[in-house]
Specification:
Belongs to the sulfatase family. Its cofactor is Ca(2+). InterPro entries: Alkaline_phosphatase_core_sf (IPR017850), ARSB (IPR047115), Sulfatase_CS (IPR024607), Sulfatase_N (IPR000917). GO terms for molecular function: metal ion binding; N-acetylgalactosamine-4-sulfatase activity; sulfuric ester hydrolase activity. Pfam families: Sulfatase. The chain is α/β, with parallel strands linked by helices and about 575 residues long. The protein has a single domain, classed as 3-Layer(aba) Sandwich (Alkaline Phosphatase, subunit A). It is built from 17 helices and 17 strands. Strands 1, 2, 3, 4, 7, 8, 9, 10, 11, 12 and 13 form an eleven-stranded mixed sheet that branches. Bound molecules: 2-acetamido-2-deoxy-beta-D-glucopyranose (6 copies). The site of one 2-acetamido-2-deoxy-beta-D-glucopyranose has 3 residues, from helix 13.
């Protein structure tokens, strides 16, 4: 009897397999076997500025719904600033190995991600993907060859430089008096979106990209990188910008800067909702991997500060501390065995390339010498086994040399940025001003279409309060007598598992131990092999005034139309000459 059944069931499965095969080869099952990869990256979002970690100051119900439905990446490490972080994402390498480790590309500087580096977009495109970048680039604009559609993206709608005004899409470099429009549809400058709030227009573009893709019922998988401007500050003349109706939802926040920040984040949260809705409408969810992250920690104080909070972590953007390096992130895919969990494995932003490639059955060429690890199966099955080594920063800049390195629970810091001005615990969790929606927080999250759509394709009970609790960062009360870390005076050693807030410096106890000495020699080895920084000083030929007030690949323009610039320069000189001589007279 049992053999009978076995025969019957194996015959059935054979038959099913056969039918499935026919279905696949006839394109009846329209989706390809490669998943769509949708990455939504925030710019300068604080670690505590998503509400799934427990803050009720302003809520992010869509991001939270994604997080609770998927896997919360509780230890995703990024680079401390935009350019190095984006370089690591797209190359799968440490910035020290591509020369992208020092600071960021300022718009007037003629450098970019080296042209001999292979990008994630190139790898996915070679493997049959449509590749689309919406929003920020920041990996070079001085030459046309540096720009996204020359680096593996089929399309780019967005800006090439550091940031833009949320409405005019122009960038002002105040120290040099340069001001120009920076927004393109692939290579062509477009003014069609002037007056349209950038977060919304990038969201609309992402929705349209998904709809176009879905309506073609394409067997070509989609690689979509949605690099938001939000919630980065805009130009210094008007840094905090959000639509009035969004700001009005946060009237309970008395500080105006913070109220605008909440509105900027809230609009970003809506974007996550719209993108997931579009994927659902096109029946693409089932076969998509959706990742949300920030490029680096938030700037609480100083340049481009937005009131972002990395609570309870130490430091902020552009520093060696956890507040610069940890990103609040979540990922979702029907492939995951443990949806609705908090994954504690340390994962580096450079791991995403090999990990997502593995998800798509792509094996990157070993000749690329990636620093990133393929953590796909650990992520898929939800285990934590790899002791990750991460070179966060080794910056031998003469003015501010500093390094930050982790292996497992050990973290070494030496030197810092801004003379240590932003080395404290800068962010806090505001509890006196509470989002009125917080009283029905769980219902709010469960009411989002993100929740409903993701439940529909990956049904499962989720204990929201438990997940919210598990993603909280616990820091021990600073015990009396702990040695503070003064990174300008000497190296510091932390056990970041026990002390993620970097309060107790264990260097004095461990300085002669093999634990520390091994870490230190490893750091020296990385430093010795580091690619020299690609940074170059500003080039006055970039001035948008020479190019119809556009930021453009001036090194090519100069070569092709040096006549115009020449004439402009002679003219300027002449004016200066006349002006000076008339003054002297
Ligand atoms: C790119 O060129 C630089 C400088 O010649 C070199 O140091 C680096 O190793 C090269 N990178 C790759 C991926 O070939
Ligand atoms: C709002 O908060 C920021 C950061 O704490 C502070 O610098 C600023 O002065 C505050 N603004 C007002 C109007 O209180
Ligand atoms: C794509 O094609 C499949 C099979 O023909 C069909 O079931 C599905 O509804 C189509 N999707 C769209 C968005 O047209
Ligand atoms: C959730 O949705 C239901 C039905 O639309 C509505 O009655 C309820 O007020 C919503 N709750 C929240 C907290 O938004
Ligand atoms: C959710 O988890 C919390 C804390 O672990 C527990 O007290 C509560 O009973 C759980 N709720 C449900 C519905 O299982
Ligand atoms: C480590 O070695 C230095 C120099 O030899 C010595 O001064 C210091 O006391 C030692 N520290 C410990 C904790 O053993």
């Amino acid at each position: 009897m049992s053999t009978h059944l076995d025969k019957f069931s194996s015959a059935t499965s054979l038959l099913t397999g056969f039918v499935l095969c026919i279905a696949l080869s006839n394109g009846i099952v329209a989706t390809s076997d490669k998943p769509n990869i949708i990455i939504i990256m925030a710019d300068d979002l604080g670690f505590d500025d998503v509400s799934f970690r427990g803050s009720n100051n302003f809520l992010t119900p869509n991001i939270d719904a994604l997080a609770y439905s998927g896997v919360i990446l509780n230890n995703l490490y990024v680079a401390p600033m935009c350019t190095p972080s984006r370089a690591a994402l797209l190359t799968g390498k440490y910035p020290i190995n591509t020369g992208m480790q020092h600071y960021v590309i300022v718009n007037d500087q003629p450098w970019g991600l080296p042209l001999n580096e292979t990008t994630m977009a190139e790898i996915f495109r070679e493997n049959g993907y449509r590749t689309s970048l919406l929003g920020k680039w920041h990996l070079g604009l001085s030459q046309r060859n540096f720009t996204p559609t020359e680096r593996g993206f089929d399309r780019h709608l967005g800006y090439l430089g550091a940031y833009v005004d949320y409405y005019t899409q122009s960038y002002e470099q105040q120290n040099k008096g340069y001001n120009g429009h920076d927004f393109r549809d692939s290579l062509k400058s477009t003014h069609d979106h002037v007056g349209h709030y950038v977060t919304d227009l990038l969201t609309d573009a992402a929705v349209k990209e998904i709809e176009d893709h879905g309506s073609k019922n394409s067997s070509q998988p989609l690689f979509l990188l949605l690099n938001h401007l939000a919630p980065h500050a805009a130009n210094d003349d008007d840094p905090m910008q959000a639509p009035a109706e969004e700001v009005s939802r946060f009237e309970y926040i008395s500080n105006k800067t913070h109220r605008y920040y909440a509105a900027m984040v809230s609009r970003l949260d809506k974007s996550v909702g719209s993108v997931i809705d579009a994927l659902a409408r096109q029946e693409m969810l089932q076969n998509s991997i959706i990742l949300f992250l920030s490029d680096n920690g938030g700037p609480t104080q100083g340049q481009h500060s937005t009131t972002a909070s990395n609570y309870p972590l130490r430091g902020q953007k552009n520093s060696p501390w956890e507040g610069a390096l940890r990103s609040s992130a979540a990922i979702w895919s029907t492939e995951f065995e443990r949806l609705g969990s908090v994954w504690k494995q340390q994962i580096y932003i450079g791991d995403l390339l090999p990990t997502l490639a593995a998800a798509a059955g792509i094996s990157p060429d070993p000749a690329l010498h990636l620093d990133g690890l393929n953590l796909w199966s650990a992520l898929k099955y939800g285990y934590e086994s790899v002791e990750r080594e991460i070179v966060h920063v080794i910056d031998e800049d003469v003015a501010e040399p500093h390094l930050s390195y982790t292996r497992g629970k050990w973290k070494v810091i030496s030197g810092t940025t801004n003379q240590g001005l932003y080395d404290g615990w800068l962010g806090h969790r505001e509890t006196s001003e509470v989002d009125p929606r917080a009283v029905e927080y769980e219902e709010l999250v469960r009411n989002t279409s993100v929740w409903l759509q993701l439940q529909q394709v990956s049904f499962g009970e989720r204990n929201i309060s438990e997940l919210r609790d598990q993603s909280r960062i616990e820091c021990p009360d600073p015990a009396t007598g702990v040695k503070p870390c003064l990174p300008l005076e000497g190296p510091c050693l932390f056990d970041i598992e026990a002390d993620p807030c970097e309060r107790s410096n264990l260097y004095a106890e461990y300085q002669n131990s093999t634990i520390f000495l091994d870490l230190w020699s490893r750091i020296q080895q990385f430093a010795k092999q580091a690619h020299p920084p690609n940074n170059k000083p500003g080039d006055p030929n970039c001035d948008p005034r020479f190019y119809h007030n556009e930021w453009t690949w001036w090194q090519d323009e100069k070569a092709s139309s040096s006549g115009t610039i020449g004439v402009m320069k002679v003219f300027t000189l002449l004016v200066v000459f006349i002006f000076t001589s008339s003054c002297i007279n």
